[in-house]
Amino acid sequence: QVQLAESGGGLVQAGGSLRLSCAASGRTFSIYHMGWFRQAPGKEREFVARITWSDANTLYAESVKGRFTISRDNAKKTVYLQMNSLKPEDKGVYCCAEAVRPRVYDFWGQGTQVTVST
Q: 96 and 5 in contact (C-beta within 8 Å)?
């Protein structure tokens, strides 16, 4: 079984930065995509960013493009989300997910809370 463990969440003022990490462990399969998703209270979970493991190709939601950067460390099986210029609407529980097939996320972490104050 695959385990995903997120870290790095917290409370930050608007305009600030946070860096989230997600480490994969256990019986890790060949990773195709690693993605970040978020869910705010009372809202649906939404896609934030993803990275293709083989070539580091990235994709971002329009709402975070230019502010967030996803990256990965192959050797550590870790994916990062650098979040800059944070806005109050970025708050939520951020989860990472692993896909062994394109865009089909089979494994999910528990999430880490991000709160952005005004």
A: no
For the chain, residues with pLDDT lower than 50 are none
Amino acid present at 115: T
Phi and psi torsions of 22, nearest 5°:
-140, 115
The amino acid at residue 64 is: V
Confidence (pLDDT) at 1: 80
Cα–Cα distance, 86 to 2 (Å, whole number): 30
What is the pairing mode between strands 112-117 and 10-13? parallel
Q: How far apart are CA 91 and CA 94, in angstroms?
A: 9
Q: Look at residue 9 in the predicted model and tell me its pLDDT.
A: 97
pLDDT digits 0-9 by tens, 27-58: 766 889 999 999 999 999 999 999 999 999 99
Distances (CA, A) of 96 to 13, 27, 32, 63, 117: 23, 17, 14, 18, 23
Phi, psi of 89 (to 5 degrees): -75, -5
Q: What are φ and ψ of residue 88, in 5° steps?
A: -55, -35
